[in-house]
Every structure is written in C-alpha cells, then in structure tokens.
Amino acid sequence: MLSELTVRNFALIDRLDLAFGPGFNVLTGETGAGKSILVGAVGLLSGGRASSDVIRDGSDEAEVSAVFRLQDPGAFEARFEEFGLPAGDEVLVRRVISRSGRNRVFVNGAPTTLAVLSLLGETLLSISGQHEHQQLLDPDHQLLLLDRFGALIPDRRRMAEAHGRWADLTERLKTLERRVRTEEEKAELAEFQMKEIEAAGLAQGEDEALEQERTLIRNAARIFESVQGGHERLYGASGSVTEVLDAIRRDLEQAAGLDERLKAPAAQIEEAYHQLVDAARTLEDHLDKLTFDPARQEEIEERLVLLQRLKKKYGPSLEEVMTFGQRAAEALDALADLKREREQAAVQTARAETEARKLAGELTKRREEAAERLAGAVTQELRPLGMPHLNFEVRFAPRSESAPPGPTGWDALEFWVAPNKGEELKPLARIASGGELSRTLLGFKVLLAGREGVQTLIFDEVDAGIGGGVAGVIGRKLKDLSAFHQVLCITHLPQIAAFAGRHHQVFKEVRGERTVTDIRPLMEKERVEEIARMLGGPNFSARALDAAQEMVARADETAKT
Fold first, then answer.
1. Could you say which of 85, 253, 382, 398 is the most buried, measured as most Cβ atoms within 10 Å of its Cβ?
2. CA 347, chain centre distance (Å)
3. Quick one: the chain helix, strand, coil %, rounded to 5?
4. 348 CB contacts (<8 Å, ≥6 apart)?
C-alpha cells in the first residue's frame, strides 16, 4: 500500500507531502490544477522514464519518494535478496532527476538501477492510464488476462518452464549435432592415422636399435678382419704375443726364485698374460657370432624407411609418432562418447517435447473452459457501465498441434466486442473508444480483484466519456475493488468521488511570484463542499450542497449493501 508520497521540485509542484490510507482514495480538482502532474510523479516510482524537463524552473533536481507498506513482507524477501536490497516491512523508493543527467534510484536507502525498480514496481503499483489501455489491446496481454481470470498462472508458469527445458535441450542437441558433424569430418583422417601407426607395431627406441644393427651389418667384413687379425696376433699364430709373453713369464718365474726383487714384475707379466689370453678368447667368441645376412640388412633398411616416413608425417621422434597415434585413438573414443551423449540428448529432448506438448494441450483445454466463463463475466460487468447491449467473446486463432508450442502454449486469442445493439462482433482493438477501454479495463480489474499481486491500483482516466448513473456504478465498483487493493482514483465525477473513503483535493495557486500545484486531504465537511463544487461549479448553491450531502450519504449506504 502506498502510505506516504513526497514530491520536490517536480513541474509545478514545489514541495508536497501526502499520506494515503487503505481502501478507496480519490483525488479531485479543477481542470488544469495538476492532477496529471501528480500521476506523472507517481509513475516514476514504478520505473517510468523521466527527462530533465520535469524539473521545476530554478531547481537543479527533482525528487519523488514514497513509502509502501507491505501486506506480506515475506513474499518480497526472495526478490529483495535477488536484487541485493535490504528487506523490511516497508519499501522506501526514491527517484532523483538531475539536470546534469545523473539520475539516481534508491530502494530502502540502497542505490539500484531503473531496471530493478521497474521489476519491483510491477508488484507495488499499477497505473491504469493510456499505457495500460494500450496493453488491453495487445492479444498477448489479453491471453494473460484470461489466464489470470481462470487461475491458470501456475499452469502458464509450468508451461513456460517446460518450454524452457525443451528449448535448452533442443539447443544442446543442436550443439552436439554440430560437434559430431565437425568431429566426423576429422574422424576419417584420424582413423587412417591411428591404423597406420598401429599397423607399424612401433616399439620405443626401436629406430635407434635398428640404426646400430644396420651399422654393424654394413661393416661386418671389416670388423671380421680386425677381430680375426687381432686374435691371430694375440693367440692363434706362431710367435703370437701370448706365446712370447708366456716364455717371458716362465723365465721370470724361475729368476724370481733366485732374486726376490723380480717377483713384482714377474707378477705383473703373469697378470698381463692371463688378461691377454682372456681377450683372445673373447675375440674368438665374437668371431663365431659375427654373421652377414643380406636378407636381414634389407629388412632393416625397409623398416628404417617406414619409421622415417612416419616420423616425417607425425613427429620428429618415434615417441612423438606413438603419442600422435594415441591421440588419434583418443579422438575416436571421444567421438564415440560424443555420439552417445548426442543420443542421450535426443532422448531427453524428445521427452521434454512430449511434456511441453502435453502441458500445452491441457492448458488449451482449461483456457477454452475459462474463456466461456470470462465472456459471461465481462458481459455482466460491463453492461451496467453504460454498455447495456454489449456482447463479448474470446476467440482463439486457428492452430496446428503439429506446430511446436511456445512459452505460453499453442494459444493465440483476441477479445471480440460488440458494444451496441445490432453491431457485429469485432476485435476490441478496432472498435473501442477511450471511454469503452477505460470501462473494459475497470471491468477486468474487478474480475481479477484479489488475483493480481499488485497492492496499489491507480485509475487516471476511468471516467472518460461517461456520466450520470453509469458514474455511480463505476464508483461502486471502485469501492468494491478497494476491498482487495488500495485504490487511488483521479476523477472529475462527483458520483465516483462520493464513494471514496479518503478524499484529496488538487489545487493550483500563486505563492509569491510562482504558480504551484499542491494537494490537501479533505475533512468530511470539506469533502461534501468539494463534491458540491463538482456538481455546481466554484460558486455552488445551497441546493448543490444538499445534493452533494445526499450523494455522499447514498454512496455510503450503497457501499454497505
């Protein structure tokens, strides 16, 4: 509920401090007194746009602030937490408009953005002026009104959530399909590379070992000659080194028996003899192992050519070739995993689509049932409002269930109206006048009373194009509506003002050298006088005063029934 309103330096308003109460509040005043200015100021509290033109001449800033008392503070806690704002039993909204363009928004003392204020404003107040009239002509908004009337908002929300899941899964499936196509284009080459490397049967360090073996085979003859010659000179031939050394060894062994000083060199020669004999035997063994196999040489050469080709294609080293083959195999495994993921996503997407279509079908059925009730209810509400012969229908656009449902389901609809007797039904957007739109909007507000989360309803043009007895009916409906919402109504009609629980007068006067717009609450006697002014003009008669008194009494009595 809007409990306090403060306006500073806004258009013709110098300083305004105003308190509103629950129930039905009206604001009246002479034409041009500034009632529309006040509505513009309040509109800033729900996120309305503003320019420096609204700043009062001679001021650098305009400021509008308000205190909203929450009927259910707990319902706002999650939203305040989402926006990072301090919560409480009240909401203090403050807008500052600066000539410098540095406009500021505060909620409960914390700075925030205009976008956040707009979202909060949707649940704080609703201004039924030109903007909402235009909304009423929008088929999407008409669908929302039907859902609100039919208590289908939870179904609508489930539909939106199901469609969101389906859309997300569909997008994920498309992404997976694109990735699979991309990887499949690479897979043929990767498979060839993997098989080529696998077929080679590579072993780590194989190329180095083969290079060494090839070197041995290529130099086998020269190695054989060297080893054989060395063996002969050491051991095999007559007069070989070991034969000569053996003779020296024996002679020194005898001489050392006679001269102990020869024992050391004799031992050294003895050790050298045995070492050379061992070396000769090793050379002899090596000669037995030395072979020259032309077929093996050809095999090694072919193998080394293969390894060199693989290293040239896949890496400078054999280890990198093997790693490349492993990565190719992993890529193929990843593609197989990706295909399995795609298949799972396809199943999930199909399930989500089935669920979305099921909910869309159920929602359509409930809407068709609600549409019949809405048509009757709107007709009943609007006929007493100066449209006694009105006919109203909700018409659904043709649809195909093979088409995918949207976030609100399959349905598109439009309100069709015949305001006058003998007229054919036509879309509301094509025939409704401003007055008819105002009354139609009021009718919906009454029908949806208590179902909308908005706490404060402001009516700016509800009395456009009406008068007489119809005005009294509208006043009664606004009074009834105030049982569910705080209602603020700007009106020129005394029949409406008579139903108010609180009455404020907007007036314009000259203070010093400046014209200002101001507003003041009226006591009971002043309220009757204001209604008399609305009936008979500024110089109203005693008869007008009596009529005003009777009108207020009759309205009070009517409201009790």
1. 382
2. 24
3. 60, 15, 25
4. 169
